[in-house]
Structures are given as structure tokens and as C-alpha cells.
Amino acid sequence: MSLNSNQINIIQNFFSKQPVLKAYLFGSYSKDLENDSSDIDLLVELDYSQPIGLEFIQMQLDLQELLSKKVDLVSERGLSKYIKPIVDKEKKLIYAR
User: Fold this and answer.
1) Partners of 25 in the beta sheet?
2) Three-state SS at 83
3) Looking at the keywords, is Transmembrane present (predicted)?
4) CA–CA separation, 71 vs 59, rounded Å?
5) pLDDT tens, 44-75?
6) With contact defined as beta carbons under 8 Å apart, do 61 and 74 qualify?
7) Residue 1 pLDDT more than 60?
8) Cα distance between residue 83 and residue 41, in whole Å
């Protein structure tokens, strides 16, 4: 996993204040294949007992600003059943409540 400890701390602190139960890193960063143009792919398990709605989009925008990097934020429910097996193989847990 190629995120540095500061980036991981930023993500963990941010998600601790959001309706996020778990967060996983996947994609190029989880496989140490990232380059300067790579985005940070994050899969999240949301706490649906809290209202989410458009807050999900705002979470992505806030993370991009905090990390100064493009972030692709995907919820487990929004993950395609065709892509899920691939993501499940490479995902790395970086946050859990």
C-alpha cells in the first residue's frame, strides 16, 4: 500500500466524523502500481442508519481537497457485481469504526 502515514491518518480522521463503518483502499494504490496521475480508489461501507444522500458526493469532494488528489469514492452497495470479485481480491482495510 503506497499511501503514506499522513494520508492514511487524514482519511481515518475524516471518516471518523462521517457515516462510514469501514474503508478499503483498492486499485493502483493497493497494488503499489500508482503513478502521479493515479487517483485514490476508496470503497466504503456506510452506516445507513444515518442520513447520507448528497453527503456522499460531498465526502468525495472533501477528501480530494484534504488529500490534494483525485479520489474515487465507491459504496459497497454501489459496486457492480461484476467488479466486486476483483475489488475484493485487492482491497486493503484502512479504516474501521
Assistant:
1) 42, 92
2) coil
3) no
4) 10
5) 999 999 889 889 999 999 999 999 999 999 99
6) no
7) no
8) 13
Number of structural domains the chain divides into: 1
Structural domain containing residue 90: 5-96
- Closest among 67, 80, 84 to 26, alpha carbons compared: 84
Residues with Cβ within 8 Å of residue 7, at least 6 apart in sequence: 40, 67
Question: 19: domain CATH number?
Answer: 3.30.460.10
Give the distance, in angstroms, between the CA of residue 90 and the centroid of all CA atoms in the same chain: 13
Name the pTM for this structure: 0.93
Please classify residue 27 by burial: count the beta carbons closer than 10 Å to its beta carbon, then call 0-12 exposed, 13-18 middle and 19+ buried.
Answer: buried
CA distances from 11 to 1, 79, 81 (A): 14, 20, 26
* Interatomic CA distance for residues 80 and 31, integer angstroms: 20
